[in-house]
Amino acid sequence: MPYILNTEKDTREMFGAIGISSLDDLYRHLPGSIRINKNLNLPSGLSEQELRNCLTALAAKNKTINKFNSFLGAGSYNHYIPAAINPIISRTEFLTAYTPYQAECSQGILQAIYEYQSYVCLLTGMDVSNASLFDGGSSLAESVLMSLRITKRNKIIISSSIHPEYKKTLYTYLSGFNFKVQEVNFESQGLTDINLLKAGLDDDTACVALQSPNFFGIIEMTEKISSLAKENGALTIQVTNPVSLAILKEPVRQGVDIVCGDGQALGGHLSFGGPSFGFIATKNEFLRQLPGRIVGKSTDKEGKPAYCLTMQAREQHIKREKATSNICSNQSLNAISAAVYLSLLGKEGLYNCALYSLNLTHYFYARLSEIKSIKLNFSKHFFNEFVWSVDNPKALMKKLYKKEIIAGLALDRFYPELKNGILSCCTEVKSKEQIDDFIEKLKTV
Amino acid sequence: MPYILNTEKDTREMFGAIGISSLDDLYRHLPGSIRINKNLNLPSGLSEQELRNCLTALAAKNKTINKFNSFLGAGSYNHYIPAAINPIISRTEFLTAYTPYQAECSQGILQAIYEYQSYVCLLTGMDVSNASLFDGGSSLAESVLMSLRITKRNKIIISSSIHPEYKKTLYTYLSGFNFKVQEVNFESQGLTDINLLKAGLDDDTACVALQSPNFFGIIEMTEKISSLAKENGALTIQVTNPVSLAILKEPVRQGVDIVCGDGQALGGHLSFGGPSFGFIATKNEFLRQLPGRIVGKSTDKEGKPAYCLTMQAREQHIKREKATSNICSNQSLNAISAAVYLSLLGKEGLYNCALYSLNLTHYFYARLSEIKSIKLNFSKHFFNEFVWSVDNPKALMKKLYKKEIIAGLALDRFYPELKNGILSCCTEVKSKEQIDDFIEKLKTV
Amino acid sequence: MDTRLIFDKNSSGRKTNYIKKPDIALKKANELLPQEVLRGDLNLPSLGELDVVRHYTNLSRLNFSVDTNFYPLGSCTMKYNPKINEELSALSGFLNIHPYQQEDSVQGALELIYNLEKILCEITGMSRFSFQASSGAQGELTGMLMVRKYHKLNKNKKRKVIVPDSSHGTNPATSSMCGYETLVVESSRDGLIDLDKLSKVLDNEVAAIMLTNPNTLGLFEENILAISEMVHKIGGLLYYDGANFNPLLGITNPALMGFDVIHLNLHKTFSTPHGCGGPGAGAVGVNSKLLDFLPCPIVDKKNDKFYFDYKIKHSIGKLRAFYGNFSVLVRAYAYLLRLGKEGLPRVAQNATLNANYIKAKLKNDYNTASDKPSMHEVVFSCMRQKEKGVSALDIAKRIIDYGMHPPTMYFPHIAKEALMVEPTETESKETLDYFID
Amino acid sequence: MDTRLIFDKNSSGRKTNYIKKPDIALKKANELLPQEVLRGDLNLPSLGELDVVRHYTNLSRLNFSVDTNFYPLGSCTMKYNPKINEELSALSGFLNIHPYQQEDSVQGALELIYNLEKILCEITGMSRFSFQASSGAQGELTGMLMVRKYHKLNKNKKRKVIVPDSSHGTNPATSSMCGYETLVVESSRDGLIDLDKLSKVLDNEVAAIMLTNPNTLGLFEENILAISEMVHKIGGLLYYDGANFNPLLGITNPALMGFDVIHLNLHKTFSTPHGCGGPGAGAVGVNSKLLDFLPCPIVDKKNDKFYFDYKIKHSIGKLRAFYGNFSVLVRAYAYLLRLGKEGLPRVAQNATLNANYIKAKLKNDYNTASDKPSMHEVVFSCMRQKEKGVSALDIAKRIIDYGMHPPTMYFPHIAKEALMVEPTETESKETLDYFID
Ligand SMILES: Cc1ncc(COP(=O)(O)O)c(C=O)c1O
Ligand SMILES: Cc1ncc(COP(=O)(O)O)c(C=O)c1O
Questions:
Q1: Are A115 and C47 in contact (CB under 8 A)?
Q2: Predicted pLDDT at B301
Q3: Which residues pair with D404 in a beta bridge?
Q4: Complex ipTM
Q5: pTM for the complete prediction?
Q6: What H or E segment, with its residue span, contains residue A309?
Q7: Staple partner for D344: which of A164, B155, C304, D250, CB 3.0–4.6 Å?
Q8: Are strands C206-212 and C160-164 parallel, antiparallel or unpaired?
Q9: How far is the alpha carbon of D222 from chain B, nearest alpha carbon, in Å?
Q10: Which chains pack against C, by 3+ Cβ pairs within 8 A?
């Protein structure tokens, strides 16, 4: 039997030590009526050789994104992943280790996570970050719950240009409570409608949550919104794309109180949407309400730096039903991977990654604007994706798909009012050639 | 510049310390006439992203063996490679370490190589093995040179059913000397012709070298040959396939003095023929003539086992022109990989690997024998490959190739006298289905 | 070893060119965007590839891990993570697919999810599974939100959730996140749920009880059928925290025990690696009562085509963007195919055998938290040692000296000076003997 | 850590089923083969996958390596081995091709070999390359056997090969393997070849001189053109041991220096990993004199198709089965494309800069083996320390205590108490400073 080491001889000796005479004796105290007395209705185990064949065949049934000229983004970004990441995060002392509860056996994990947290703070300008959450969606939910705990108010305002699946996640997380939720629509330029938002703000509003660059790629007027929120004693939560922060103003300098989002863009694989990780960072004053694990730095007896899990009193192991969150396992390896990515790219590399993405996307936009039948109604202040419209986008996309082009995401899926809209994205992996080829094909289909 | 860490500031400081003012100053003492004073005529360096694209495209121009129903063997065997090997031999402490000259920094390497050597001894029954040679061909050459040193005789007898490329390698290695070489042909069954061999043996014969299973897959009568050799004071050298030793008699019990061969079959990739490794093992009495590195076991001050390079006095660092060989770097990582492979498969696994290969090959043979037009003239005592003949094999193989079948190796390439012969191989990765499909296609092309 | 932070290894000007400069005329950021949305300096370090590789490789060497050390951390099921699963989950066909690609281009991924669900249904007896949760705790949240919506839809007035005092901290925390009041029921002296005490807290306002079985003391809740009957009678549901399901694979299942909704930690029972604390996956299974409440989408099949089904009548919505930690699902699926119907019960039996062996060998030296037979783990109470001045912490440190990871300490809280040992089935008697000595 | 041998971890009956049982009726070995050719018991250990993984993972942890430690082992060019090269050499299209596949199915592999050869020709000035040799030493053998055949064909009566006393041991050993008598020429006091002494040993029987440049003291043989003229005049050839070519990339080349045949260690200069001592690759380059003697096959191109050319008039034959250590070639090719024309001279310059920096910083504390400017490495003689009772070995041990791999010791033999330091260009000033301190 693979992965089981006890031999027959071992088993017999262990029976002797325990005082039993069969494996079944281990289960004597289970009520008979709940025992499964037949074989599971499953195939027999495969040899490793058969297993490899089987899953290789299954993988081959997927057509990878590299086989397409694809402009899909919408929360999952195809960035270049340096080769050095994988050998590092595949180090078995990271891969097969558990949560660093035992600090003496985990200094490497703890330092790596501490560095991850520091990177999040550098990018966002915030004081503190946790060790990671699950993904962008749950990081928004946890941020909102945090604001509700901090302000002890009962209403939240959400921009409708936040990733629709993040909003959906948030609403699920809130479904056990009776908070009031107001969704504020976007205006004609694709930005959160500040007038509607203003109207919604009141002294029971815990937070305003927005995304910037928003789901349409557009950079929101965060500073304006955060100052309105502040006037009403509400916190500002911003979902963001961490790569965009290489060129965009740090959230903290725009009055944001809690910043969150998905970390996939930082060297993570697409992998059909997961695993990635959620990040969350805030100001020192809100530290006690920050959910999840946090690694802190101190010094050991010899005065050398030492790292350990800190602020555990907020967590469920100790606080139980009064914990800031139920989160226990998070996405540590993905967070460490992001730290490695940022270390490899460094200051200049990440900047270029953002700048190239920005340029290619704007080049794409310019090329599209040559075509009469295409409408480009939203703001031009977008980062690495934007919305364009065309009559009957579904039919167009189908035709392009046959030519191995994925034009982007059809927006009717999430926004009936944008039923002609397509959201398209460029990162640094796209080339001028691919964009030009797309335009060519677009003109001829 | 990738992989160079000195910054401009560093460089300036280093200039100061050295007392130079430009990089070029480092080369002031080179004669001007030999300086390259222009750019190399090469492309500019690629980003990692471009490099990955470029080599991925190149790799895609190769059609891998898995895309064919292939029966190629002939010294490079497509065995199943357990997934656990790669993560182990990719451990950077193996991959990026050098020869374990410095024992304190290399106990892991030394122990792993010691275990490799022990495995070779277990398989072959010999007393001592070295730390590896380059491949099967050079291992035969080094074995023959060894026999010449040991016996101080001047003639060698070589079976013509040794892998033709190993023979060729041997002849190249001998080309600096004036030894007499006699090649003994195979008889009608594909075995070394013992009568010819007997006739060739004389008191100047240093060794008889044969391969078993030989190039045609046939198990040679090694015991008979070795006793003839012994009668004449010559040594017996046997090239072998290490996987076959799971079921075939240990060379040492067949009177063999030096056993050698290629280790690719032990969990190594095909990788277009290299890298694999050569193994060589012999009896204690010949230890001082064994070429290359050897790891020995001793105990340290605290009585714990410790490993180090041993018998270095035979080697070129010390002995220089009187060394047993010039070999320095060998194929350590491949040898360690083989040790890991053997550890994973273990006693039962390696036996099954050999047994399944044997069975599938004989099944294939039986199926082929159903077809009238196919001749099977050689001995039925083959391991995992055998020779079959057909009129105009090239035309047949071409037709099959179009159906993504590689029937085997056309033998005219190496043996004009076997111009209709095809050498075909099965390992445990072949299935009944693939063999049956091949027979089906063979009947219909 | 140079243990400075990576930031302290910064050397301005050092860099590696990973990405390609696009072949268009590059504009500066402020030519494309208004200056006021742009940031000033980006204070990331500048490093070379060797700096980074050496830094993190050396950090990794400071950790204990399953591949390097015996790691009997109780409640965490630190079993061996097969290497083939890593290889397969890294296949390009699994790694390089976008969640919004057309379904016909990701049929392999959908088939995998579909098949994995079918296998888990067979093992647990549940009707369907959702794979959106990224961890056990998020699985609990998923399940309990379904419970909540179920009660709401059925107009049941429910306010409370019961958890035993031995429960894992995530259980009460989850209950709070669902807006429930948490009631704790004390365990009896033998470490099991005290039925009398349970019946006292059970009333019509109880929405559900959350149970781990075997519980965190490693004991099987023998009265599970009685408990299930009691809870169901007041209209409550039973939630199964499957973190400890390993010793029961193929032996019994949560459906037979009467559970309505469960989660399984794929990163425990199904061997996906823990990765320093994630990514994992919490597969949430339900019986027919809760089918209509599953998060959306789920994967279905029609005319041999697999597709995402978003039409779930009373779906609680989504727990995350996209569909879940897909790469983790690949590993779990590979593991299940590899073990098959014969392998799974063997896993359970050997996990139980190993724990009981340790218990048998150490019970003369350490008090066990209960005299009941153990399942996959055993909890010792080091009170006897404590009296001699040796705490559980001291013992743990000594175990580290011997090159092994210590067991879980001071949990569960109801055992004093607890040391919680879960050897898992992938360790050998030989290793256990070394640990025991 | 349990450092027993893997054999001592054997536990009879333990196993993992990796391979598939064929779906034919299995026969026993003795039903297919005569009993007398079969072996008795096969005494391999029986282990579980975790046993093996833990064993070798822990063994790996005992080693120093470039990724974990500064590794300035002289003469070995322990530069950083880029991770991308490992990834690319592991592509299925490179790993899973059989050497006897039809040429049209391996065009990518042939193209790679073809292109790599072109690049090396440009860098070295040689006409063609062979990639059959698996190491530097085998490269030497290849080259010197060509030299031998060349002389034979030209009916030159040659019996001897000259090597300097500072030469690497493989040079004289190779010369012997080619049936030549080895003459050693002493170095002058400044560590270079003594031209007078050379002229004394040079006669018509000298087939070749084998030189490393920079030599093993890290010094450039400034009189190389004079040497080349002297040797050529007596009808001898010049062999270039390219193990130390790193500091000269793009600066000069062996053709300009007058060499006729050379080898390059791809595992040194071209960054392929050393793997505990192999696999490497010795690329052997020749000028037009030796073109007809190359091992066969070489790769050529016709009508955009790449093919193996076996028709080499006086080929010395083969050095191995098949074509060489192909995976190593993939890495070297990737490295060359990555660095390009600008990168290669920068490699050379920084390797030289780093060595000279160490020399400048340490020359007050240690004697250098020569006062000549250093190239890629510097050899110190610890005689001053030795007088105070501290040997080169003691110094090496101390360096280990600081977490660095010690330099090469006691080589070259002509320097007393030698410590040979080759930092390579991939290390930073910071690291060097730590080493210096
Ligand atoms: C009994 C029990 N329940 C729940 C959990 C939480 O699982 P996760 O860490 O995946 O959120 C754990 C994990 O330690 C556990 O042991
Ligand atoms: C100068 C010199 N020549 C030759 C060699 C031999 O190279 P290899 O180990 O690849 O055979 C070395 C390697 O150490 C060397 O330093």
A1: no
A2: 86
A3: none
A4: 0.97
A5: 0.97
A6: strand A305-310
A7: D250
A8: parallel
A9: 6
A10: A, B, D
